[in-house]
């Protein structure tokens, strides 16, 4: 395959910072990335070369790797098997004018998930999208993970940045083996505890809904309810179960649960 430079916009045309409003681009990008459940997925048509765009569910692995489902017979899956280059666009939706909202575009290559990672990824995906049980068991189910090579954030009017890199979306898992190994058990225990979920819901802004924890990593945890998702960031990195229990207790949750 021909090599390519993963550039979204020409970096030799810098943004005029005198026209930009100040904002923390890294925090805005990470929060939008982790709390979004839908993305526009663009692949390259294997015959014409034209971009082909569709909407898909977005799941995020603990290390910050984007992941999505695709049926093997779908056009975008067949496109990716011929050319793995891909773009994902994420927007903060809900308003009447998307140009007033945050938007994040990622580019990279999408590759089928290795068989030894499928079960854990499917379980995490199912927690995030409970109705996915209707299609995850199909024989031609494919899961693709995206190796992000470039990104661009538009934070809203006068809020643009070219300074972000893929590393800004990543979560380091090294030294957090205890937390990662027991992720499923800890999520189950929290979801079985009304006081723990109430404390987390309050931390997420007190938004109503039947919230459930869907994913857990050293930087934070993800909550989902019908039609909504929230990211809760830990004040500092948590690498083990005692640290997680202490955090939940610190926000008004039980000292023990499950």
Protein architecture, described:
By secondary structure, the protein is an alpha+beta fold. Helix content is 28%, strand content 28%. The chain folds into 2 domains: 145 residues, Pnp Oxidase, Chain A; 77 residues, PNP-oxidase-like (Split barrel-like), CATH 3.20.180.10. The longest helix has 14 residues. It is globular. The protein starts with 24 loop residues before the first helix and ends in an 8-residue tail after the last helix.
Question: Whole-number average pLDDT?
Answer: 88
What is the number of independent domains? 2
Cα shape: globular
User: Strand percentage, roughly?
Assistant: 25-35%
CATH C-level category of the largest domain: Mainly Beta
Q: What's the count of strands? A: 11
CATH topology of the largest domain: Pnp Oxidase, Chain A
Order of helices and strands: HEEEEHEEHHEEHHHEEEH
- Report the total helices: 8
Report the major sheet. Answer: 8 strands, antiparallel
Helix content: 25-40%
- Report the structural category: alpha+beta
Radius of gyration: 19 Å
Q: In terms of topology, how is this protein built?
A:
Blueprint (H helix, E strand, L loop, with lengths): L24 H11 L2 E7 L6 E7 L1 E2 L5 E6 L3 H8 L2 E7 L11 E10 L2 H14 L4 H4 L4 E14 L5 E2 L15 H5 L1 H9 L2 H10 L8 E6 L2 E6 L2 E6 L7 H10 L8
Antiparallel strand pairs: 1-2, 1-5, 3-4, 4-7, 5-6, 6-7, 7-8, 9-10, 10-11
